[in-house]
Amino acid sequence: MKEIFHVRDQFRDGIPENAQWVFPRFINPLEILAFECILVLRERFREPVPNCLDGCPRMFKWKFKRTGTT
Protein backbone atom coordinates (compact mmCIF):
# COMPACT_ATOMS: atom_id res chain seq x y z
CA MET A 1 0.00 0.00 0.00
CA LYS A 2 2.92 2.33 0.64
CA GLU A 3 3.80 2.31 -3.08
CA ILE A 4 0.20 3.03 -4.07
CA PHE A 5 0.03 6.06 -1.78
CA HIS A 6 3.41 7.26 -3.07
CA VAL A 7 2.20 7.17 -6.70
CA ARG A 8 -1.03 8.91 -5.71
CA ASP A 9 0.84 11.69 -3.91
CA GLN A 10 3.44 12.06 -6.65
CA PHE A 11 0.81 12.76 -9.31
CA ARG A 12 -1.68 14.67 -7.17
CA ASP A 13 -1.47 17.73 -9.46
CA GLY A 14 -1.67 15.66 -12.66
CA ILE A 15 0.75 13.61 -14.67
CA PRO A 16 3.55 15.69 -16.19
CA GLU A 17 4.21 15.31 -19.90
CA ASN A 18 6.80 12.62 -20.69
CA ALA A 19 6.48 11.16 -17.20
CA GLN A 20 7.84 7.64 -16.97
CA TRP A 21 6.92 5.49 -14.01
CA VAL A 22 5.79 2.03 -13.20
CA PHE A 23 3.12 0.86 -10.84
CA PRO A 24 5.01 -1.61 -8.67
CA ARG A 25 3.73 -5.16 -8.41
CA PHE A 26 0.72 -4.55 -10.64
CA ILE A 27 -0.24 -7.45 -12.87
CA ASN A 28 -0.86 -6.38 -16.48
CA PRO A 29 -3.27 -9.22 -17.34
CA LEU A 30 -5.43 -8.18 -14.40
CA GLU A 31 -5.49 -4.62 -15.75
CA ILE A 32 -6.50 -5.82 -19.21
CA LEU A 33 -9.21 -8.14 -17.84
CA ALA A 34 -11.69 -5.29 -17.35
CA PHE A 35 -11.32 -4.29 -21.00
CA GLU A 36 -11.86 -7.91 -22.05
CA CYS A 37 -15.01 -8.38 -19.95
CA ILE A 38 -16.74 -5.00 -20.21
CA LEU A 39 -17.61 -4.41 -23.87
CA VAL A 40 -18.24 -0.68 -23.44
CA LEU A 41 -14.67 -0.25 -22.17
CA ARG A 42 -13.24 -2.36 -24.97
CA GLU A 43 -15.07 -0.41 -27.68
CA ARG A 44 -13.99 2.92 -26.29
CA PHE A 45 -10.38 2.25 -25.28
CA ARG A 46 -9.09 -0.77 -27.23
CA GLU A 47 -8.49 -1.50 -30.91
CA PRO A 48 -7.32 -4.60 -32.79
CA VAL A 49 -3.63 -4.96 -33.58
CA PRO A 50 -3.21 -5.15 -37.36
CA ASN A 51 -1.37 -8.18 -38.78
CA CYS A 52 -1.36 -10.02 -35.46
CA LEU A 53 -0.48 -13.70 -35.74
CA ASP A 54 -3.28 -16.20 -35.17
CA GLY A 55 -1.27 -18.02 -32.50
CA CYS A 56 -0.90 -14.95 -30.28
CA PRO A 57 -2.89 -14.87 -27.04
CA ARG A 58 -6.04 -12.78 -27.24
CA MET A 59 -4.71 -10.10 -24.88
CA PHE A 60 -1.92 -9.35 -27.41
CA LYS A 61 -4.33 -9.04 -30.33
CA TRP A 62 -5.67 -5.75 -28.93
CA LYS A 63 -3.94 -2.50 -27.97
CA PHE A 64 -5.05 0.63 -26.18
CA LYS A 65 -6.23 3.46 -28.42
CA ARG A 66 -4.36 6.73 -28.32
CA THR A 67 -6.42 9.43 -26.64
CA GLY A 68 -5.72 12.95 -25.51
CA THR A 69 -4.58 11.66 -22.12
CA THR A 70 -2.55 8.61 -23.19
Short description:
This protein has 70 residues and is mostly helical. The chain has helices at residues 2-10, 28-37, 39-45; strands spanning 46-48, 62-64.
Structural commentary:
This protein has 70 residues and is mainly α. It has one domain. The protein contains three helices and two strands, in the order αααββ. It has a two-stranded antiparallel sheet with strand order 1-2. Helix 2 (28-37) packs across helix 3 (39-45). The two termini are 25 Å apart. The model has no long low-confidence stretch (mean pLDDT 79).
Fraction of helical residues: 25-40%
- Biggest sheet, in brief? 2 strands, antiparallel
For the biggest β-sheet, the strand order reads: 1-2
Radius of gyration: 15 Å
Shape: elongated
User: What structural class do the secondary elements suggest?
Assistant: mainly alpha
Mean of residue pLDDT values? 79
How far apart, in Å, are the first and last alpha carbons?
A: 25 Å
> Using DSSP, what is the number of strands?
2
Count of individual helical segments: 3
Regions with little confidence, pLDDT below 50 for 5+ residues = none
Secondary-structure element series: HHHEE
* Domain tally: 1
What is the chains' assembly state?
single chain
Share of β-strand residues:
5-15%
